[in-house]
């Protein structure tokens, strides 16, 4: 593998983790909730893709998106809406409990065995660009992430609802006093996080072709770590932090000796610990993280 190919793969992986971190950061912005159950949104979308891909992509992709968004809205309505005034630590514990509960639900519904299906196998092939063999999925992931980020940026900065989300993220209490409808804005952010989770699920499912009840846990943990080291209080810094973790994980996979590749996450965690000791509020954030009023 050439350095350019390794770089493209690392950028693709960084984009994937950046999208996951952005979904987590959106919800944290308005609720101060570090949502561990985000991984189960990824998992339900992956199950939907694997179980319905034989119906064709025009059926499977919308169903996966719908499953993830509906589950995100259901969690918001049934659980987090009733805990809105709870402190961040309580919300964190609740989301962790939900994550564990949903994993058991997936075990009951789909079994402990891994479910497999060749999802979008054409994307797993390589194409030749300027004499290099590059995996099609890496290019599609980078392109899709760029389009989604541009669309989300336009939505947040050019639409009334997007501006309300930004206002709620900056100062939720003041935004409510100015007329921002809390239920609408929070439900919207959960819905967007569910949509982003579905995109992450698609890429991971194409890569592995398999899904299990804990499918989304690893990517969620790493994305959450990325969001924290970047600065989870702001969408831009959370996104960059997620990208850096994904990029580093891919680069370590490429350049570490074969006997040390399985310990790549340990190297990532070690770097994260150093960063948080030196800058507890995040690598890209100036000053302390704001607390919710």
TrEMBL record:
<feature type="transmembrane region" description="Helical">
    <location>
        <begin position="6"/>
        <end position="28"/>
    </location>
</feature>
<keyword id="KW-0812">Transmembrane</keyword>
<feature type="transmembrane region" description="Helical">
    <location>
        <begin position="210"/>
        <end position="232"/>
    </location>
</feature>
<protein>
    <submittedName>
        <fullName>Branched-chain amino acid ABC transporter permease</fullName>
    </submittedName>
</protein>
<keyword id="KW-0813">Transport</keyword>
<feature type="transmembrane region" description="Helical">
    <location>
        <begin position="59"/>
        <end position="79"/>
    </location>
</feature>
<feature type="transmembrane region" description="Helical">
    <location>
        <begin position="263"/>
        <end position="285"/>
    </location>
</feature>
<dbReference type="GO" id="GO:0006865">
    <property type="term" value="P:amino acid transport"/>
</dbReference>
<keyword id="KW-0029">Amino-acid transport</keyword>
<dbReference type="InterPro" id="IPR052157">
    <property type="entry name" value="BCAA_transport_permease"/>
</dbReference>
<dbReference type="Pfam" id="PF02653">
    <property type="entry name" value="BPD_transp_2"/>
</dbReference>
<dbReference type="InterPro" id="IPR001851">
    <property type="entry name" value="ABC_transp_permease"/>
</dbReference>
<dbReference type="GO" id="GO:0022857">
    <property type="term" value="F:transmembrane transporter activity"/>
</dbReference>
<keyword id="KW-0472">Membrane</keyword>
<feature type="transmembrane region" description="Helical">
    <location>
        <begin position="91"/>
        <end position="110"/>
    </location>
</feature>
<comment type="similarity">
    <text>Belongs to the binding-protein-dependent transport system permease family. LivHM subfamily.</text>
</comment>
<keyword id="KW-1003">Cell membrane</keyword>
<feature type="transmembrane region" description="Helical">
    <location>
        <begin position="130"/>
        <end position="152"/>
    </location>
</feature>
<feature type="transmembrane region" description="Helical">
    <location>
        <begin position="185"/>
        <end position="204"/>
    </location>
</feature>
<feature type="transmembrane region" description="Helical">
    <location>
        <begin position="239"/>
        <end position="257"/>
    </location>
</feature>
<dbReference type="GO" id="GO:0005886">
    <property type="term" value="C:plasma membrane"/>
</dbReference>
<keyword id="KW-1133">Transmembrane helix</keyword>
């Amino acid at each position: 593998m050439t350095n350019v190919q390794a770089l493209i793969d690392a950028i693709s992986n960084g984009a994937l983790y950046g999208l996951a971190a952005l979904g987590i950061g959106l919800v944290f912005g308005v609720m101060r909730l570090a949502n561990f159950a985000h991984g189960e949104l990824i998992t339900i979308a992956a199950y939907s893709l694997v179980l319905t891909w034989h119906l064709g992509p025009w059926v499977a992709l919308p169903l996966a998106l719908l499953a993830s968004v509906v589950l995100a809205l259901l969690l918001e309505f049934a659980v987090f809406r009733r805990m809105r005034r709870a402190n961040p630590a309580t919300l964190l514990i609740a989301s962790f409990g939900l994550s564990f509960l949903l994993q058991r639900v997936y075990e009951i519904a789909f079994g402990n065995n891994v479910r497999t299906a060749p999802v979008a196998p054409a994307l797993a092939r390589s194409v030749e660009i300027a004499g290099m063999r590059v995996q099609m999925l890496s290019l599609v992931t980078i392109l899709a992430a760029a389009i989604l980020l541009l669309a989300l940026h336009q939505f947040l900065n050019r639409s009334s609802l997007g501006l309300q989300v930004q206002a709620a993220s900056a100062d939720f209490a003041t935004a409510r006093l100015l007329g921002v409808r809390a239920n609408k804005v929070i439900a919207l952010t959960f819905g967007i996080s569910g949509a982003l989770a579905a995109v992450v699920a698609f890429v991971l499912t194409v890569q592995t072709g398999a899904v299990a009840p804990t499918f989304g846990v690893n990517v969620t943990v790493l994305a959450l770590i990325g969001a924290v080291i970047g600065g989870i209080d702001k969408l831009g810094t959370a996104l960059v932090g997620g990208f850096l973790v994904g990029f580093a994980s891919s680069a370590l996979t490429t350049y570490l000796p074969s006997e040390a590749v399985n310990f790549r996450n340990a190297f990532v965690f070690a770097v994260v610990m150093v960063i948080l000791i030196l800058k507890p509020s995040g690598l890209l954030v100036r000053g302390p993280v704001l607390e919710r009023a």
